[in-house]
Amino acid sequence: LARLWSGSRVASRLLAEDRPAALFATGGYAAAPVGRAAQRAGIPLVVFLPDVHPGWAVRFLARYATKVACSVERSLASLPADRTVVTGYPVRSQFLHATREEGIARFGLDPSLKTVLVAGGSLGAHQINLAVSSALRTLLEQAQIIHISGVEEEHWLQRERDRLPEWMRARYHLHAYTEDMAYAMRAADLAVTRAGASTLGELPITGLPAIVIPGTFSDQHINADFLAKEGAAITLPTLRLDELESMILGLLDDAPRRESMATAMRRLARPDAAGALAQLLREVAA
What we know:
Oligomer: single chain
Number of strands: 10
Distance between the termini: 33 Å
């Protein structure tokens, strides 16, 4: 509490100097004193909840917010009903314009093969990478893989790739990181991913069915549960990663189920989310 009050005093001084027309916050402990100071200074505050469930900081900031925006309708039950609107999760313009054909070209894929995208987030996910590496030979007999491993993980996965037969190496597209995630998603038939907030925007906008493996370090399991209950994804807890191989193979062999999941995922898409948030900010700042 002492840090909160101290931070509020510092924020009040900075806001008095800058006098912004409005403030935008997405939660996080650092935003709490700024939001409190904004309310005391009479500066409109828009709080955005990217995940399904609000954490402490968003719940705190919502008390002071002029408007609260959220990614999905399920969040409404946990937020002030009279001040909350569902905007969707904003995505980069790349996600609105990327095509499957361009994705296939950019990643050098074989258009006759099914494609699995594995992405553990910007830092990678060691346990997911281990599970995928142990299943590589079996999976590559059935599909090609785009594997966004994370910078710290690429070196040992590259050694695993080097051990593969040449024809399998051609199917295993290993990248530490990519700026072309929208193209990778458009090119893929199935994703294996964590369940961070961005999945609520990026998977729906690309209509990509997914196996979501929530991290144990946050409320990702709530995001994963939401996607699963909507029929758009399958949740796989980290403790059951030994089932990942069979789950991937089962979905690759079940085109009707993948299409059903893709349809459910597309129903969640809100391509105008960024514009809706921008308009909300303009309105409170007017």
